[in-house]
Amino acid sequence: MSTASNQEARSRGKAPAGERVADWADGRLGIYSLAKANMRKIFPDHWSFMLGEVCLYSFIIIILTGVYLTLFFHPSMNEVEYHGSYVPLQGQLMSEAFSSTLHISFDVRGGLLVRQIHHWAALIFLAGMFVHMMRVFFTGAFRKPREINWLFGFLLFVLGMFTGFTGYSLPDDLLSGTGVRFMEGAILSVPIVGTYLSFFLFGGEFPGHDFVARFYSVHILLLPGIMLGLVVGHLILVFYHKHTQFAGPGKTEKNVVGMPLLPVYMAKAGGFFFLVFGVIAAIAAVAQINPIWAIGPYRADQVSTGAQPDWYMGFAEGLIRFMPGWEINLWGHTLVLGVFIPLVAFPLVLAAIAVYPFIESWITGDKSEHHILDRPRNAPTRTAFGVAWITIYMITLVGGGNDLWATHLHLSINAVTWFVRIFFFAGPVIAFLVTKRICLGLQRRDREKVLHGRETGIIKRLPHGEFIEVHEPLSQEQLHTLTAHHQYEPAEVGPTVDENGVERKVKGSEKLRAKLSDAYYGEDAQIPKPTVEEYKEITSGHGHH
Amino acid sequence: MSSQDIPEENLPAEHAGQPGAVSVADEKDPFADPGLPPHEHRIQDIDEQAAKRSERTVALLFTLSMLATVGFIAAFVAIPHDRSIFVFPIGHVSALNFALGLTLGAALFCIGAGAVHWARTLMSDAEIADERHPIEASPEVREKVHADFKQGAKESVLGRRKLIRNTMFGALTLVPLSGVVLLRDLGPLPESKLRHTLWKNGTLLVNMNTNEPLRPSDVAVGSLTFAKPEGLEEHDEEFQTEIAKAALMIVRIQPDNIKDRRELEWSHEGIVAYSKICTHVGCPISLYEQQTHHVLCPCHQSTFDLSDGARVIFGPAGHALPQLRIGVSDEGYLQALGDFAEPVGPAFWERG
Amino acid sequence: MKKLSARRRHPLAAVVVLLFALAATGGLYAAFAPAGKAQADETAQSLTIEEGKRLYSVGCASCHGTGGQGSSDGPSLVGVGAAAVDFQVGTGRMPAATSQGAQVPKKKNIYTQAEIDQLAAYIASLGAGPEVPTKAQYGPEGADIAKGGDLFRTNCAQCHNFTGKGGALTKGKFAPNLEGVDPKHIYEAMQTGPQNMPSFPDTTLSEKNKKDIIAYLDAVNSSDTENPGGLSLGGLGPVSEGLFAWIFGLGALVAVAVWVAARTAKAKRS
Predict the structure, then answer these.
(1) B93, C267: Cβ pair inside 8 Å?
(2) Contact A300/B244, CB-based, under 8 Å?
(3) Which chains sit next to B, with 3 or more Cβ pairs under 8 A?
(4) Residue B229's pLDDT is what?
(5) What pLDDT digit, counting tens, does each position of A357-403 carry?
(6) Start and end of every Cytochrome b/b6 N-terminal region profile domain (chain A) (predicted)?
C-alpha cells in the first residue's frame, strides 16, 4: 500500500504493465482494498448453489438479446398490410408490432435465433428463479441474516413474471392479445376503480392503439431497470453475507469452506455463464418457441383454443379457470367475485411463501445468525409447508392447462376442473401431512444410522447359527454431519404471574406462538438426536453390528 | 503453461484440519466436529501425464469454440435466410436458424466446458476455510452512531422548530401529486362507452366471411356464423375497438328447442344472435356444439346454453351472454332491432 | 337396457364378417358383371342406390332405422346428404361401435370408396342434402392461403387451435387434430357439421372460402409444414413450451451444474 514504493517501482519502470494499470486504478478507485476482501473470497461447491447463477446468467442473456431485438422491433399498433416473406400471411392486416416481429423472424438473418434465445431464456430464467427460491426455502437459507435478500429474490421473481407478461404481449399476436384481453377483464373486475384503471392503461377502450407502446416501455425500461438494481443488491448481499454451506466436518457457523474466487470460482462461474448461454442457444436452434406466424395477428373477435399464458403465469390462469362464476349485483353496482377473487388470490399465493421466513423466525424467537444449511428433513414443518405450497402452485398450474390435460388424457374438461377445485384445498393438506411423516421417517433413519452404523448388506452367520447383517460404524465425520443440526425446544408461554405475584394478562399472540412452536418442535414434530450415552451403550454392549 | 507448477503449490496437506474448526462434543452436538478432512490429491496433481491430458482437453475445447465461431460466421454469410432443410427428428426447419444456433451454442458451450475442466482438474482444489465475522456492529460502534445521529438531529433543530418540520412534510407529501395528476391523460374517462356498441335499430348483420349482409335463409339449423355490424370495415381506424364489443355469433335453433321465452321473442324464426364476447373476461367465445347448443369459452371454459338464454352452466363467467334482438329488414336481410340491452363483455363495477 | 339388447343384436364383429362377405360378393359381382358400357345412367343410378340400401340395412339400420328415419340410438339421415355419409363412413366414424361415450372417434374405415358411394347414393335418395365435393372444389388450385388463415382463425381455431391441432370441448368431447385429414373430408365436415361441430354451409362460408381454409391447413398443418424455429412441440403453445423449458432447459442446466460443482476424482483410492 505504500505510495513511496509504488512510485519507486514506477520510476524504475520495472513493474509489469498490468500491475501499473492496477496501481493507476487503485489511486483513483481504491480497488485494492476491495480486492483484498474479495479476490480470494471463498465459495462452497454444491450444484444447488449454482441455481442462482442460472438465473443471473439467463437474465444477462435476456438483456443482451433484448437489446438486439429493440433494434428491429417497432412498438406500434398502426395497422399495416403484410408483404414479407411468410406466405400464409400475405396481404393480411396486422399491427406494425406484429409485422416487425415477422420481419425479425423471417427476414433478419439470425433474428429468429435471437428471438428464440430471448424467449427460451425468459422461460428458463423464471424456472431457475423458482427452483432457486425453493432451494433457499427448503435448506433454510432465508434465515437471519439473509431475510432481506430473500425478499429481493422474491421481488425479482414477481417482477420477472410481469416483465415476461409484458414481453410476450408485445408482438400483438392472437395468443398474447387474448392474454391482454384477459388482463383487461381482470382489471375491470376491480371494484370502484376498475373501469378507470382499464381506460388509463389502454388509453381508452380495449384494445385501443396504445398498449403495445406502453407495455414496451414497461418491458424494456421500467421493470428491467428495477430488476437490474435488485440483482445488483442481491449479489452484493451474497458477497457480504458470504455463502451458506451444508453441515460437515470443519464447517461451522463461523467459517465458510470452499474454493477461492480467484482462480477456481472465477473459472467455474465464468465458465458456467458460457455453458448456460451455450445450452440456451442450442435449445433455440432445435426447438421453436412462440411461432407468432402460426398464431396470426391479434383480432378482438378471433380466438384459438389452448389459449394459455407462458408457464409462470399459468398458476394465475389456473386460479381463474377453476373459480366458480360468482357475481353480486347490488345497488346498481356489480361485484365480479368470479374474477376479483382470483385476482386477489394471485398475490396472496405468492405472498404466502414470501412472508414465511418472518413467521418462522417469530415462532422460533431465534435471533442468531445461521450459515449452516438445514437438511429439509430436519425441519419437517417448514419442509411440509413448502411442499404444501408447491402443491397448491402445481394444482393451479394443472388448472391453467385443464383443456390440454383433458384432450391428452382423454378426460372431461369439467372433471379436470372439478379435480382442481377440490384439490386446491385438499391437496396442500395431504401434501403437508405426508411430507411431515416422510421427514420424520428420514430423521428416524438418520438416528438409526448414527446408533447402529451403516447397513453393509453383508450377512454373517454367528457361531450359534444366528444370521446377522453386519453394520459398519460411521466415521466421526459422518456422525458429526448427521447430528450437527440444531433442534429447538418448543417455546412456552412465560410465567403468568410476575415476581410480585400479580397475575399478568397472557396475550393471544403469545398463546398462538406457543401453540405453533409446539407444532414445530413438540414431541411429534422432531425425532431427538441420539445422545452420546445412547451411542456408547449400543456400541459397547453389542459390539459392531 | 502453468499446469506443471500447480500441483507443486498444493502438494503438502497443510490445509488439513483447519484450526478453529474442531469443536467439543456437548449435549446439543453429541459428536464433535473432527475438523476439515485432509486434502486428497487428484490424479492430475501427481501424474504429470494426466495433467498434460487435461491441458490438451482444455485447449481442444477452446479450439473447438473458435472453429464453431468461424462456422457461425460462415453460416451467416452462406445460408440464405429462406432455406429450409429437413433435420431428423426435428422436421423441416430454417437452415439458417439451425446452423447459427448450433454453432453459437457450441462456441459458447466449449468456452464454458474448457474453463470448468481447467478449474476442476488443474487449478488447486484445496478447500480453504474463511472466517465469518458477525454482521452486527460492536457496541462501541453502535453507541457512536447513535450519538452521532442524535448530535446531527439536534443540530438540525428539526425537533424544536416544529413549523419547519410540519411544512416540510406537507410539501414533500404534496409534490408527488403533480406526478399523479400528470397521469390523467393516459386515457379518457369510461363514461358510458362500455354500454354501447355499433348496433342500433336497422343495422344489418354482415357475414364476417363474405362481407355480405345475411338473409334468414342463409342460416341453417346447426350452422354457426359470425357477423359484424354493417359499415364496419377491417381497414377502419377503430375496427379493433368496435369489433371487440360488436362481434356476433349467430346460430339457428329449432324454435321448439328454445327454452327461454325472451330468447325466442328476440330471435327470428329460431335464428338467435348472441354477443361473441365472453362475459367473464372478454375472450371471443364460440366453441358451439350444435347438438347440445352449449358454447364453451376456450380461455377459461365458461359454458353457456344457447338454447336457454345463454345462461352459464359451467365455469367462471358470472352472467349470461347478451342477446341482440334481431328481425328482418324490408329487403329481407337480417337486421338488429336495437343495441344490446346490457353491456357486452366482462362485468365491471358500474355495470349494475 | 334397450341399448344393451340393441348392442347384443348387432355386435361389431358380426358386422365386420358380413361386410367382408359383402365386399367379396361385390368384388365377384364387379369382376363377372357384364361390362356393358353404354348402360343407361338411370339404371346405374338405381342399381347403386339398391346396393347402398343393402349395405345400409346391414351396417346402419340398427341405429338409424330401416328407412333412415332414425331411432333413439341414432339420428335421422333424411336430408343429411351424400357428403355427410362420405365423411362419416370415410373417416371410419360410422358405423359406430356404440352410441354411448362423449363422441364417436375416428377409426379405420372398413368400406371401399365404391361402397361408400353406394351408401351415399342411397342416403341422398332419401332427401336432398349436400353432395360430395369434387376435387375442383377442395383442391388447392387458385386458393388464397392468407385469406384461408383469416377465415380459419375466425371460424375454426376456437375449437381446432391456431393451426388445427385440436382442442377440448365440454364433458370429454373434443375437436380433433386436422393433420393428415383428407381435404375432401375437411370440406364435407364444414359442409355438413358432423356430431357437435356446427355446419358452415355455402350460404355463410362460400365454396371459395372453404377452398382457402383447406389450402391454409395444407400449408400450416401437414407433415411437410416448415417450422423454421425447430421442434414444433405439438403446436400447442405455451404449455408444451413451458414443459420443454423445465425438462430440457432447466434439466440440462442442472446436469451441467452438477458437473461443475462435483468433486474431481481423487488419486488416492485407486
Answers:
(1) no
(2) yes
(3) A, C
(4) 95
(5) 999 999 998 889 999 999 999 999 999 999 999 999 999 999 998 98
(6) 21-247
The class that CATH gives domain C145-220 is mainly alpha
The rounded percent of chain A whose pLDDT value lies above 70 is 97
Q: Does A290 touch chain C (CB under 8 A)?
A: yes
Q: Which of B251, B233, B254 is nearest to B242 (CA)?
A: B233
Residues of B in contact with A530 (CB under 8 A): 30
Q: Take residue A43 and report the three cell numbers written for it.
A: 465459495
Q: Which chain A residues have a beta carbon less than 8 Å from that of B315?
A: 321, 325, 417
Q: Which of residues 15-54 of B touch A (CB under 8 A)?
A: 17-18, 20-21, 23, 25, 27-37
**pLDDT, average across residues B299-327:** 93
Secondary structure element (H or E) that encloses residue A436, with its range? helix A413-452
Does C45-126 carry CATH code 3.40.50.720? no
C270 touches chain B (CB under 8 A): yes
Q: What is the mean pLDDT of chain A?
A: 91
Q: For A302-338, how does the pLDDT look when each residue is reduced to its tens digit (9 = 90+)?
A: 999 988 999 999 999 999 999 998 988 888 889 999 9
- Cβ within 8 Å, pair C157-A290: no
* From A6-10, A58-62, A482-486, C257-261, the region with the lowest mean pLDDT: A6-10
pLDDT computed for residue C49 by the predictor? 86
Q: Which sequence spans correspond to the domains of chain B?
A: 43-127+138-186, 193-351
Q: Where in the sequence of chain C do the CATH 1.10.760.10 domains occur? A: 45-126, 145-220
The interface predicted TM-score of the complex, written ipTM, equals 0.91
* Element of type H or E holding A270: helix A266-286
Name which of C81, C122, B299, C101 is nearest A307 in CA terms.
Answer: B299
Which alpha helices (DSSP H) does B122-255 contain, by range? Answer: 139-156, 162-182, 239-246
Residue C110 backbone dihedrals phi, psi, to 5 degrees: -110, 0
Specify the CATH number of the domain B193-351. Answer: 2.102.10.10
What is the Cα–Cα distance from C169 to C151, expressed in whole angstroms? 21
Name the band, by pLDDT with cuts 50, 70 and 90, for residue C28: low
The pairing of strands A454-461 and A372-373 is unpaired
pLDDT of B14 strictly over 70? no
Map out the domains of chain A with their CATH numbers: 2-38 (no CATH), 42-243+259-322+331-374 (1.20.810.10)
Q: Which residues contact A224 (CB under 8 A, 6 or more apart)?
A: A63, A66, A163
C-beta atoms of C248 and A287 within 8 A: yes
Contact B300 A301 (CB under 8 A): no
pLDDT value for C5: 44
User: CA torsion angle for A528, A531, A536, A538 (degrees, to 10)?
Assistant: -10
Distance CA C209, CA A174 (A): 21
CA distance C181 to C183: 6
3 state SS of A37: helix
